[in-house]
Amino acid sequence: MTTTPLSPAAGLRGLCNGRVHLPGDAGYDAARTPWNLAVDQRPAAVAVPHSAEEVVEVVRAAAAAGLRVAPQSSGHGAGPLDGRALDDVVLVRLHELTGVTVDPDARVARVLGGTLWQEVVAAGAPHGLTALHGSSPDVAVAGYVLGGGLSFYGRSHGLAANHVRAVELVTADGSLVRASAEENQELFWALRGGSGNFGVAVAIEIDLLPYAEVYAGMLLWDRERAPEVVRAWAAWTRDLPETVTTSMRVMSFPPLPDLPPFLSGRQLAVIDGAVLEDDDRAAELLAPLRALGPEMDTFGRIPAIGLTAVHMDPPAPAPAVSDHAVLAELPEEAIAAYLGEIGPGSSTSLLFGELRHLGGAFGRPADGGGAASHVEGEYALFAVAIAPTPEAAAHGQADATALCAALAPWATGTRVLNFIDTTVDVSTAYGDRWDRLRAVRAAVDPAGLFVAHHPVE
Ligand SMILES: Cc1cc2nc3c(=O)[nH]c(=O)nc-3n(C[C@H](O)[C@H](O)[C@H](O)COP(=O)(O)OP(=O)(O)OC[C@H]3O[C@@H](n4cnc5c(N)ncnc54)[C@H](O)[C@@H]3O)c2cc1C
């Protein structure tokens, strides 16, 4: 008679009140599936804790069993884990450890480990407060702020990581520690940009912003107008106050019944974002773009909670591949290269080629900031393709890479960690902060227990 040896992860089965799933278990496939459905992650086990205490138990048990631990909240940033050997890794999915407590007087929210941005902005809204969320309501606070965080409030207020006040973290020895400007300062510095390399964040305290309403929206043209629109946006961004943060995309939507008619099957040029000014001044600033006669113009004063909808990010998990670069400038030659890849007449497979306007407070090192406190460069390029099949993924990845390659002459060589979704040299996101980051990792996780999407090694 032969017996199958028990997996080292089998010892974790009783933890999290039974919410630990091993390969072959009925719940394994659902539990291991990230937001990015193109990513196939096959860990030794998936644990779904409901409390900080359960996270502590899982981390201790995994370490004792010789396994490693990968924290994950929504799985929006799972791309670099695709195809990585995870057979000695316990994936700790935090999507059921959620909740927000707002202190309106201090303008601070305490957010549990896997909470999504939509829950935070909804909790702040009754107090006339909002947060430095990104374009999408269902990205999680943890991965976003620990990776930097580019918000439509960002040219005024800087990276979201600079607005983290404290992180409650389960570290490699299974301790629950607090890192802030007063406690565990070096760990606090590393966490704000170093992401999941130092432990599992079970709660994060963030600053809230005093905006009940915001002037925001989008302008939309047919892609045939892209040459004028891209040139006008590029010229406009060269001389704008820091109160304006926008994105410009050339987009191609497949014909899908779920999409509204103005998107379905259409190729478009879209500009969207926020203007932190009164209505008259906002209208004055937007006038050069409105002069191009957009087919749709939704810019106006909206409740701040509505800002998570203006970018029209997918409302549900989707399969995606992407590439990314930071550009120092956008001269005429760069615009021509961009349009050559994705403009009228091109047969790109990309859903969009996005340029986010940086500069302003994004570009300044923050007082007391962490490993990601600013970004050197004027535009973040983010090329994304929908990848429902391996063939579509390969084609989309090639087109995303080609767009970034076409703009390489204007790239800074630096990167924004949150927009890196492939396996690249992540030290490029940190510049001269890389060695300090590695030193913190060696000090707090000497055995390399934690597996982040972007490893600091
Ligand atoms: C549709 C879409 C829109 C986006 N918009 C923006 C945007 O506007 N601005 C922007 O800056 N970025 C944006 N991003 C990028 C996004 O911020 C990153 O993908 C980020 O990593 C997502 O964090 P997450 O926790 O939701 O994802 P996850 O994949 O769950 O996490 C990514 C990594 O973060 C770490 N991590 C997550 N949770 C924890 C935790 N509790 N403790 C410790 N480590 C943790 C881990 O290292 C993990 O591998 C967008 C991405 C998508 C797909």
Architecture overview:
- Helix content is 24%, strand content 22%.
- With 457 residues, the chain is of the alpha+beta class.
- The longest helix has 17 residues, at 390-406.
- It binds flavin-adenine dinucleotide.
- Residues 71-78, 94, 113, 134-136, 139-140, 142-144, 146-150, 195-196, 200-201, 313, 418, 452-453 line the site of flavin-adenine dinucleotide.
How are the SSEs placed, and which strands pair?
Blueprint: E1 20-21, H1 28-32, E2 45-47, H2 52-64, E3 68-72, E4 89-93, E5 100-103, E6 108-112, H3 117-124, H4 141-146, H5 154-157, E7 164-170, E8 176-180, H6 185-194, E9 200-207, E10 213-222, H7 226-237, E11 244-252, E12 267-275, H8 279-290, E13 296-297, E14 300-303, E15 320-327, H9 332-342, E16 352-357, E17 379-386, H10 390-406, H11 434-444
Parallel strand pairs: 2-4, 3-4
Antiparallel strand pairs: 1-2, 5-6, 6-9, 7-8, 7-9, 10-12, 10-13, 10-14, 11-12, 11-16, 15-17, 16-17
Helix pairs in contact: 6-11, 7-9, 9-10
Bound molecules: flavin-adenine dinucleotide.
Flavin-adenine dinucleotide binds next to strand 3, helix 4 and strand 9.
